[in-house]
Amino acid sequence: MEKMIIEGGDSLRGEVRISGAKNAALPIMAAALLTPEECVIRNVPQLQDVRFMTKILQALGAEAELAGDAVRIRAVRIGDTCDYDLVRKMRGSVCVLGPLSARLGRARVALPGGCVIGARPIDLHLKGMEALGAQVAVRGGYVHTRADRLAGREIFLSGRAGPTVLGTANVMMAATLAEGVTVIQGAACEPEVADLAKFLAAMGAKIEGAGSPTIVVTGVPGLHGAEHELIPDRIEAATFAVAAAATGGEVALRGARPDHMSAVLDKLREIGVETRREGERFLVRPAGPLRPAHITTHPYPGFPTDVQAQMTALLTQADGISIVTERIFESRFMHISELARMGAKVYVEGPHAIIHGPNKLSGAEVMASDLRASAALVIAGLMAEGRTEVRRIYHLDRGYERIDEKLTALGARVKRAEDQGP
Ligand code: EPZ
Closest ligand 1 atom, CA of 300? Predict the structure, then answer.
């Protein structure tokens, strides 16, 4: 196991290239199961989760190989089962359910179970598959679907916490091969859903409205191979923007899509961070003392839950009381107790994190618990006085490509080290 050792106090300066979007890569790689022809996906981030998705496709019988930032997939003959040992390690693998059900007429996918940030049910995925005419049964810890041919229907797919991103992906993918027209109401509007639709259209699917709450899919008899270049990762870009603000430096985000980050940039500007576009680069730097803010996470285009932890770390330095409300997941405040151990004055009250600032943080040994909480602890370490050791950084490697190298190139003193601890 590895840890990251961070000497705090340096301002980040320079340019960082934003990698392809992890949360576009996973469903798009799964979509390649819909055709026996070769698909090539480019600008793929070299991440643990992407390598794992490649393994899942291979376990299903597809040819899949990662070469640099491209992945080639050819699903000629595939099985219908994605077993527990795979799914339990990466929840995102649930997005093979739609493609397998549509391509084979049946699927057997292990229930993903919860994770530290919440129960992560998939009831809406199953509601969508049933609406398309599949018989859906849950037994032995697996979801079993069966349907000779799926049939298009009008489906409302939002739940108690709003739309489901991977649920929308699963139903949209399955609908591409269903008989007739499917209308998904209450669809997730994330850019990753729109990017998936773009790839599916390149494969010959007929989809309108992706990126809006209403997606219309007209089924076709079959899909062909395609090539695709992933959109940049808006969450990685937001993480580096927050890190620039946190360290008082100026960072150019190369390849970022500011139009995918409006809610984050709006909040950063509100607390006193300057942003400006310079051609292909988007610059971020603080312009004076940070002001407190009230932030509530919402489905896209609202403030993304995947940037909540990073922003909470930053707001420990704002001059006043900030309130961060998490409305998407039940327990996405695992970073709070670790920030408190570094001297932050922050506490949780139900879905709210109350942050009193500014408070100088001091370096400490802290424990990463999930992907975005780890990013928050790294940002805190960059701000803190002295040395911070973030342990269990395998969480970080799931979603950030070579983050230590990228931070070092921006002037941070970070390095990986073996962690003998539990
Ligand atoms: C995707 O997860 C992302 N992961 C998550 O990013 C992201 O936090 C999340 O969307 C919300 O934006 C990938 O794309 C691989 P949801 P997903 O279904 O699709 C509830 C990261 O850090 N819900 O949109 O699994 C659910 O419990 C990861 O990169 C149901 O109730 O999330 C949650 O409260 C973390 N029933 C809310 O909806 C369902 O059937 C949103 O979940 C499905 C979801």
Answer: 12
